[in-house]
Design a protein that fits this description.
about 350 residues; Rossmann fold; six-stranded parallel β-sheet
Length: about 350
């Protein structure tokens, strides 16, 4: 099979021929049609993000494809089925505290390196070997639509946070960092789950306006300045009602004080879920959190059952994949795809690599 290979951090991807994957028990081989290219992919491939990767590797965390072959534990999947491939692979020998990797992306712990070495190559390749657990049918689609369905990878992350925080229909939610890819997806999923109002907080005024244009008046933009007291006041003024839920997706570059502004806007009894990449310690107000009964938790990724549930939301029309502006590249254009994703990151822009071309 052909694959885009990273041989050294900072080097361009090279199209090389690898042995076809060999099917084992408990596994599925997928012919990859489309793989999403995140805006920060260049930082992973350069080594700037310090992701744990053993080289050489075909990167790429998941995507859309068709089943080529299944093992004996698959009772419903069959060759030719269109599927979503989930990149979050978990060890099976510890249900309480599993080790995990993002396929073709990073190993989270030293113990997870065994998974990384076995399920090594990611979705920037013509074929992919994954555990059966990581393949979910999406129903019949046209081949031309495979790239648009890579939005599932982006939508699933905030969906995991919204489920973890138990978002209820009719609630008011603040999405902090709404102008980023995952934050913008969080706005779309919160609306699909029945949020009455979504406060979209971010610094980019144009991106905030675009969120309102695409999603309607239930989205209320709050432009942030980076001054904690001012930002909290703007959030509360924009909401005009108690904030039930705070979902934080601020990036690595953000300061902890910007997270603090969002946390302190939650109503008494409110919930806060942290899913961003902020580096640094939060100066939490113990007395305020305790007296206001605020629930604060972190959430990494999502439960496995979230995948089919989100696919059902798309199929039901609650989430419209046509709201994304899609640009696609053939496998041989992998480096162009990475550069394009970096230059065109945003809540409504998708870059997809097409290994089937």
């Amino acid at each position: 099979m052909k694959a885009a290979i990273l041989n050294a951090f900072g080097a361009p991807l090279e199209i090389q021929t690898l042995p076809d994957p060999v099917l084992g028990t408990g596994e599925v081989i997928v012919d990859m049609a489309a793989a999403g290219v995140a805006g920060y992919t260049a930082g992973v491939l350069s080594g700037a993000r310090s992701y744990v990767l053993e080289l050489p590797i075909a990167p790429g965390p998941g995507g859309i494809g068709r089943v080529r072959a299944t093992g004996p534990d698959a009772t419903k999947l069959k060759p030719g089925d269109w599927v979503y491939v989930d990149a979050t692979i978990r060890s099976r020998d510890d249900a309480i505290n599993p080790d995990s990797i993002l396929l073709g992306w990073t190993a989270r712990t030293p113990a997870a390196m065994r998974l990384h070495r076995f399920y090594h190559h990611g979705s920037f390749a013509e074929q992919l070997l994954v555990p059966t657990d990581n393949v979910t049918p999406i129903g019949a689609i046209g081949t031309k639509d495979a790239g648009r369905w890579t939005a599932i990878s982006r939508l699933l992350v905030p969906y995991g946070g919204l489920l973890a925080g138990d978002l209820k229909a009719g609630e008011t939610i603040l999405v902090n960092g709404a102008t980023g890819g995952f934050g913008g997806a969080g706005v779309a999923v919160a609306l699909a789950m029945g949020a009455a109002t979504v406060i979209a907080a971010g610094r980019n005024a144009n991106a905030l306006s675009e969120l309102v244009r695409r999603h309607g008046p239930r989205v209320k933009p709050a432009q942030m300045t980076g001054v904690e007291a001012d930002d909290r006041a703007r959030i509360l003024e924009t909401a005009g009602a108690p904030i039930d839920f705070v979902l934080d997706f601020l990036p690595r570059e953000a300061r902890p004080s910007q997270v603090q502004s969002a946390i302190m806007s939650a109503r008494p009894g409110g919930r806060v879920v942290l899913m961003g990449g902020v580096r640094g310690d939060l100066a939490l107000n113990y007395n305020w959190i305790m007296h206001n009964n605020v629930v604060l938790r972190g959430q990494w990724m999502y439960d496995r059952t979230a995948v089919p549930r989100l696919i059902q939301m798309v199929r039901a029309g609650l989430i419209d994949l046509d709201k994304y502006d899609l640009t696609e590249f053939a496998l041989a254009q992998a480096n162009e795809a990475v550069a394009h994703a970096a230059a065109n990151a945003g809540p409504h822009r998708l870059t997809a690599l097409r290994p089937d071309r």
